[in-house]
Structure formats: structure tokens, C-alpha cells
Design goal:
The chain has 264 residues and is α+β, with helices and mostly antiparallel strands. Helix content is 41%, strand content 14%. It starts with 13 loop residues before the first strand and ends with a helix.
């Protein structure tokens, strides 16, 4: 499903992903849209920086040949339409995170201009993948209360998941619209503050006339654009529970069984 995003890419877009996408087919599909990719290199491809055109220490351009096997997410006709070879850039990045040892990873990218896209720039750019994947997933689970789903059937669980995704997309759209006329970027805005501001004005947006709705909407965008996050590079927080659990045992049996035990 994630590969459906490729059709919406436009020139100057850069897509980041882990090594599940660091292969020939995904790189070519992204480049065909006029966009660029920075993917962690798939472990099935060996790396030897002595081969290819050397661009620096741990940095090279090399020709990748089209694989022989068609991937499951493509038809045979689509696979045959791909070029027989493709030039990619392989870079060894040194990722630093506070509290952890520095990690060396190898990424493959279509950004082959070494003067414009230095190793330092690629390292900084790939660092955004953590925010895009892990932090945004936390917004869904924690901020939008998706940690525990209440539905009991597969159909309702799917509906509940889609509802959370719809709410997340709505709030992100508001954040993008809020920064469209300001000097700030969407990464400087608070997702939680956007949710709170939207909830405050939700009733007014739903019950007033169109003219007043436009005024309330403009006020919402202004409020969202002014709630900037504090710059906290390499922020690290302890993973602990603030509220202490109640002194009751966990429910490990069906309710009917537990109620029967009470009657004994």
C-alpha cells in the first residue's frame, strides 16, 4: 500500500524509507515521477566501495542492473517496462543519537550531485525519517488515543483505524495550511496544540454560517501558526509511566468465569 504514494510524487519531492525499499525497482519508480529517494540499502545487495566511481570516503556512484525476478507488487508488463540499468549513489552515513552509540548505515539515493547534496546533508536529511515514521506514529497512538482500540470485530477495527488516520490527516492538513503564508515550517508546529485548538473551535465551525466559518477558520490557522515548538535538538525523555496502576490483578480469564468464582 505504501507504494501507492509514488503516483502522488512531484518534482523536487524527496522520499525517505528504510531498507525494505532500498532496491532497484523502488528507486526507478520514484525517479520516473521526477522525484528523488533516500533509502537505506537493502541487505541483499553487497557493498564494495572499491567498485564504481569514487566520490569520497564511503561515497560512490555505481550502475545497478535490473533484477531478473519480478517483484510481487508489480505486473510482468510493468516490470518489463523498467530500464535495464540505473545509476545510483551509495553513501555510508554516521548516525548519532543521544544516549546511543554512533551507527554507520549505507543509503542509496538518486541525489547524485555531491556538491549540492553532501554527506552531511544526507545524514541530516535521513535523520528526518525517525520523525516521519516513529514520532508521527506516536502522535497516532498516544495523542489521538489509538493505543487501545475498543471495537470487537475485524470490520469495526478497520473502521476505527481509518477514522484515526482521517483525523490525523485533517490535523496535518491544517498545519500545512497554517504555514503556507508564514516563514515557519510545519516541523516547528505542535501537533498536540493543533488538536486542542481545533477542538475548541469545532462547534463554531460546524454550526455557524459560511461567512463566519471562514473567519473562524482563519483564526484557527493563525493560532496554529503561532504555537511553535521549542528547539530541542537530540531531545531524550525517559520511557516511564506517570500514573501508578491500581492494586488489582490483571484480567486473564473470561468475565463469566471470574463472576462464577465470586458466587462460589
Amino acid at each position: 500500500m505504501s507504494r501507492l504514494i509514488y503516483a502522488n510524487l512531484v518534482p523536487d519531492d524527496v522520499i525517505l524509507a528504510d531498507k525494505a525499499y532500498g532496491n532497484y525497482v523502488d528507486l526507478v519508480l520514484v525517479k520516473q515521477q521526477g522525484a528523488d529517494a533516500v533509502f537505506r540499502k537493502n541487505h541483499l545487495r553487497k557493498t564494495d566501495f572499491r567498485r564504481g566511481k569514487k566520490l569520497g570516503i564511503g561515497d560512490r556512484k555505481i550502475v545497478w542492473n535490473k533484477p531478473q525476478q519480478c517483484p510481487k507488487h508489480m505486473t510482468f508488463e510493468e516490470f518489463e517496462a523498467l530500464p535495464s540499468s540505473f545509476i545510483v549513489r551509495e553513501v555510508c552515513l554516521r548516525i548519532k543519537r543521544r544516549g546511543f552509540r554512533a551507527e554507520r548505515i549505507i543509503v542509496v539515493t538518486t541525489l547524485v550531485d555531491t556538491k549540492r547534496y553532501t554527506v552531511e546533508n544526507l545524514t541530516f536529511l535521513y535523520g528526518f525519517r525517525w520523525s516521519a515514521a516513529e514520532v508521527n506514529l506516536r502522535y497516532l497512538k498516544t495523542t489521538l488515543k489509538m493505543e487501545m482500540l475498543t471495537a470487537k470485530t475485524p470490520v469495526m477495527v478497520r473502521k476505527e483505524i481509518w477514522t484515526h488516520l482521517l483525523a490525523y490527516t485533517l490535523l496535518r492538513t491544517i498545519m500545512w495550511q497554517a504555514v503556507s503564508s508564514s516563514e515557519n515550517t510545519v516541523f516547528q508546529l505542535s501537533f498536540q496544540s493543533t488538536r486542542q485548538q481545533f477542538n475548541l473551535l469545532l462547534t463554531l465551525l460546524a454550526t455557524t454560517g459560511k461567512r463566519q466559518q471562514r473567519q473562524w477558520r482563519q483564526l484557527l490557522l493563525e493560532q496554529v501558526a503561532t504555537n511553535l515548538l521549542t528547539i530541542r535538538p537530540e531531545r531524550s525523555e525517559p520511557r516511564v509511566l506517570k500514573r501508578r496502576p491500581k492494586p488489582y490483578p490483571r484480567m486473564q480469564e473470561p468475565r463469566s468465569v471470574l463472576k462464577a468464582k465470586l458466587r462460589v
